[in-house]
Amino acid sequence: MSEIKVFGYIVVSILLLSAIILPLVEVFNVTRERVMLYNNIHNSFRAARDSSYTYHEMRRLNSVVFENRFKEGFADTFATSFGINCRDSSGNTLLFEGNDVYNDFIVEIEFGTPIIYDIEDYSVMTVAIEASTRYKFKIGMLVLATRADPDPFQLKCKREFTIRLIN
User: Where would a tag sit more exposed on the chain, N or C end, judged by fewer CB atoms within 10 A?
Assistant: First the structure.
């Protein structure tokens, strides 16, 4: 009889521990995905920055970043890093189709006005990038909770970069 009680205590403790540990694992997954999003935005920015102008264009006075080339380079790198496809890249909002791991991404790119410094012979331009997606929970309890929630959990990342072009 005592063996049955011990077995029952073990089963109940496993159930309670799983109810506590599984949401913690999901929190670690959310943190990991957020770090991946920040890193992918940074890497996509660097690739887009390097592909949006050429050395010949940098040598001319008051050089600028070509925004269409920047958006194309950013979209290609961002889509490749997550294994998704770019659905729409018109305007300053890029839409990416989700897959079985990720939901749809919305990336907004805002270009600042270039500031030209004649004395130092360079120009500076800011680029603000904001990416957001609904997080796809992997644990059953949290999946059910997000289905009932009208305002789902959003992964958001906003970064501002500075591009310095030497004329």
Answer: N
The pLDDT tens digits of the residues spanning 48-58 come to 888 877 655 55
The per-residue pLDDT for 129 is: 94
pLDDT band for position 69 (cuts 50, 70, 90): confident
The answer to whether the beta carbons of residues 65 and 52 sit under 8 Å apart is: yes
Q: How far apart are CA 126 and CA 67, in angstroms?
A: 12
Residue 98 burial (10 A CB sphere; 0-12, 13-18, 19+):
middle
Under 8 Å between Cβ of 37 and 131? yes
Tracing tokens 């889509």 back to the chain, one arrives at 79
pTM score: 0.77
Determine the residue type at 153.
F
H-type alpha helices, 52-111? 55-59, 67-82
